[in-house]
């Protein structure tokens, strides 16, 4: 007879980014990070800021993934025993919208553990309490229905959240524009590309502030045969 499997799988030994790698993304807007990864890396636009995240600047931290599954919260609860100060806890509920993925009390426990932010592909509840806790969070909306804590669930591994595979040990950068995942294996190359992005953005910003109004000289493009007037 097949034995009942454990209701929780917990991976503690995932590779973590260094403090210097985390610091390289401190204060960097999500748009810059996406540009450094060839224009990609953001979670689905349905995952939006709530509470303190609507007014705070960019946050950055190490991803700790709690793969709960639909209508579940067991893995998120267990992750509270695994997170370290500065981590960002991500709850995967496989996009399920029928119950909340987290409320203000668990969010408060995350803050007590030094967690930097919370991200989920499901709704949250207790919006007044979320605002009072003051921990930046990103979710798909609000739903007061209660989740279950029966499992199964997994902590410290990987899950698909908002259309992106997120693994524990990746770097997360989040701001009012969205949430971006930097895979652990691509951290250093993204940091290197980010320097060029910052320089290009600064140069372009200077042009705009200097009065620039257009991208192209259309007359020159017509003369070169790259464009044609049709009127």
From TrEMBL:
Keyword Metal-binding attached: yes
Binding positions for Mg(2+) per the UniProt entry: 126
GO MF annotation list: metal ion binding
Keyword DNA-binding found: no
Alphabetical list of InterPro entries matching this protein: RraA/RraA-like (IPR005493), RraA/RraA-like_sf (IPR036704)
Superkingdom of source: Bacteria
Keywords: Magnesium, Metal-binding
Protein residues bound to substrate: 103-106, 125
CDD domains recorded: RraA_family (cd16841)
Cofactor: a divalent metal cation; Mg(2+)
Name of the protein in question: Putative 4-hydroxy-4-methyl-2-oxoglutarate aldolase
Natural source organism: Donghicola tyrosinivorans
Lineage: Bacteria, Pseudomonadati, Pseudomonadota, Alphaproteobacteria, Rhodobacterales
């Amino acid at each position: 007879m097949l034995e009942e499997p454990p209701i929780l799988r917990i991976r503690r030994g995932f590779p973590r980014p260094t403090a210097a790698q985390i610091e390289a993304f401190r204060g960097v807007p999500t748009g810059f990070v996406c540009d450094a990864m060839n224009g990609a890396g953001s979670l689905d636009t349905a995952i939006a800021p709530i509470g303190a995240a609507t007014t705070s600047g960019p946050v950055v931290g190490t991803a700790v993934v709690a793969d709960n599954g639909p209508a579940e919260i067991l893995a998120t609860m267990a992750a509270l025993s695994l997170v370290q100060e500065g981590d960002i806890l991500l709850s995967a509920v496989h996009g399920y919208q029928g119950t909340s993925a987290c409320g203000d009390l668990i969010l408060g426990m995350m803050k007590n553990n030094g967690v930097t932010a919370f991200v989920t592909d499901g709704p949250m509840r207790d919006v007044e309490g979320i605002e009072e806790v003051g921990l930046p969070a990103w979710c798909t909306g609000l739903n007061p229905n209660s989740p279950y804590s029966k499992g199964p669930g997994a902590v410290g591994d990987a899950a698909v959240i908002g259309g992106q595979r997120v693994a524990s040990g990746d770097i997360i950068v989040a701001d009012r524009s969205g949430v971006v995942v930097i895979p652990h294996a691509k951290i250093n190359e993204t940091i290197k590309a980010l320097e060029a992005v910052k320089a290009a953005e600064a140069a372009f910003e200077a042009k705009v502030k200097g009065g620039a109004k257009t991208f192209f000289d259309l007359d020159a493009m017509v003369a070169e045969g790259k464009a044609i007037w049709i009127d």
